Amino acid sequence: MPADDLFDVSGLRVLVTGGSRGIGAMIAEGLVRRGAIVTITARDAEACQAQQERLAEWGECHAVPANLAGEQGVAAVVAALEEHGQLDVLVNNAGATWGAEFDSYPMDGFDKVMNLNVRAVFRLTQALLPLLTARATAQRPSRVINIGSVEGIMVSASQNYAYGASKAAVHHLSRQLARDLAARHVLVNSIAPGPFYSKMMAFALDDQEIRAELERSIPVGRIGSDDDMVGAAVYLLSRASAYVTGTTLVVDGGLSGCS
To answer: For 43-70, how does the pLDDT look when each residue is reduced to its tens digit (9 = 90+)?
Structure first.
């Protein structure tokens, strides 16, 4: 096969959860621009539809507004994808965070984060497995990419207890799924992003003093770009990573590995 096909993702049918903004939007746009057929989900129906219309300028994109924290949302996504009858890639990106001091950290906040960031990842992967395995082969495996975080690897400076714990769980869950689904020709990996611009990070990155301090803490001296995230995703769902499963790809400019 020609070398220039190694990173080809054209024609792949991909679902990106939380695809209306942040890292999910970066990945969705990067894949649509490279010829993948992408479906995005988001809790905000208006934002989901607006993002779909924007991405449709570059290729095929569909929108399925859904709250994946509940069974109704999962069922809606599964039903929409079953209409197409195919799914090659699942990108579990939808997530939430909650920050509060330890003494007053609310249990409903803790439960919300763990439910969406961990339980929903497992449940949606479970529900979509029949579609992921329908045409997967050893030579052409399907992929699951779970978006974790460097805060699941290193201790955060912020008091967002559930978030770091949930992302560590995502990394471990990915390894477990990788072992158990390999025989069904489904490769499972996670990405652990460092600082990228998103609504979750806006409070820090919109403050120039905090942003400068953060950039000084990153060995490469900057926050992540859209291309940094798209490159990681393209690698993990292309033929280039056909022998890679059960790994966490850290994309953080050296923040966690060099500290």
So the answer is: 999 999 999 999 999 999 999 999 999 9
Strand runs labelled E in the chain:
13-16, 37-42, 61-65, 89-92, 142-147, 186-193, 248-251
Residues with a known catalytic role:
163
Indicate whether this model's pTM tops 0.85: yes
Cβ–Cβ < 8 Å for 133, 186: yes
Distances (CA, A) of 11 to 33, 51, 60, 90, 230: 11, 20, 10, 14, 17
Question: What residues contact residue 70 under an 8 Å CB cut-off, 6+ apart?
Answer: none
CA proximity to 91, closest of 13, 207, 183: 13
| pLDDT tens column, 113-150 | 999 999 999 999 999 999 999 999 999 999 999 999 99
Distance CA 228, CA 66 (A): 27
**CA pair distance 190, 99, nearest whole angstrom:** 23
